[in-house]
Amino acid sequence: MTTKILARISLLAAFGLILQFFSFPLPFFPEYLRYDAAEVPALIAAFAIGPWAGVLVDLGKNLLSFLIGNAPAGIIGITANFIAGATFAFVAGVIYSINKTKGRAVFALSCGVIATTIVMVVSNYYWLLPLWGIPRNAILPLLTASIIPFNLFKGGLTGLFTFVLYKKVKGYLEPAVSRKNEALAEK
Amino acid sequence: MLKDITIGQYIPGESLIHRLDPRTKILVVIIYMTALFIINNAIGYYFILLFSLNIILLSRVPVKYYLKGLKPLLIIIILTVSLHIFMTPGTIIAEIGPLAVTKEGLKQGVFMGTRLILLVTVTSVLTLTTTPMTLTDGIERLLNPFKRIGVPAHELAMMMTIALRFIPTLIEETDKIMKAQMARGADFESGNIVQRAKALIPLLVPLFLGAFRRADELAMAMEARCYRGGENRTRMKQLMYTSLDTGAMFITIIFLMFAIYTRLAA
Questions:
Q1: What rounded mean pLDDT belongs to chain A?
Q2: pLDDT at residue B5 above 80?
Q3: Interface test with A, best of B108, B201, B212 (most A CBs within 10 A)
Q4: Where are the domains of chain B?
């Protein structure tokens, strides 16, 4: 890992943490399931640097929120958040890295959302919800009523943000592309 | 909105818990959590409550800070406890309309509620009595033996250090850009979800570019000062185990053994 990549990952993790403060409640969901755009930096890292960078940004963001005591749901909360964010960034990053086109980006983000939802359903069913002490017979209704729609909705919105943003910041991150654009603009 | 953000919740102090080595504290928390999930009966819970109360008293941090940490979890605690109370089959001891309270449910509900509260409180002890930087140091040292199997211990700690250093800078920059956009008529704090999401875009683009620019400048500055990873790096503040740490570990291991015993004995 070069120093430049290390520094970029660190700054993106710090940025993700700050984005957590801009959370807002979603319509139709209970107040405690709030939306924040904190996964966007991880996804940008996954697109611009590589899938593992995305995972590291998400790990950094969650470790930070634990270190500064900003994790309302404690250790289980940040673990859940990390699993969701890392899956999203990794899946989207791997698919995008094969072929970097606009259409591929949309496909990568959609796959990311679906993979995240599946992983969250599995980990909640077998591990996270029992850890919270939710009784077995109450898990299934909770899953279908809140976890599946919430993850799909949150992932979709994050994906949309990433798509719009990446288009705008790409020029700066991929110098080769931006130089070509500048040359075109000069003509 | 940004001015009410507090970064970190460290309460300075000189208590026994404050003076422990961060590595000891992290290990104790891990053992404590294991014990919390091993325990499954009233004696065990009574014992762990006593142990936790002692830790809280020893930390000399006002109890209101611990309560503040529990507040965001209130909903999930109430949800869990009531799910157990009303949905566990068994001997009915009270009926409220169509809902029946069972003896087993009440017991299970109290146990689960206690477990959740303790789980959050013990992590609060960690973050209330240790600065984020010290904790980062502790994590790096604890992960060091796993370097051989590819755990990037130093890089992770470096990331945390850089990120912690730049959080205030980024917050300041966010504030500046928000004000600049607000002066041009942007509205971040009202409207429906689509409006709110749209309002974030003109804020995020300059922030992203700023973060990347800062990162590249920092990398150049680090390399100009011959940064080359964690090999042979020396530090100004060395972590050291004292007899206090040995004592704490000893008590915790006895505690873990007792927790296992209460489960096996029941």
A1: 84
A2: no
A3: B212
A4: 12-130+239-265, 146-224
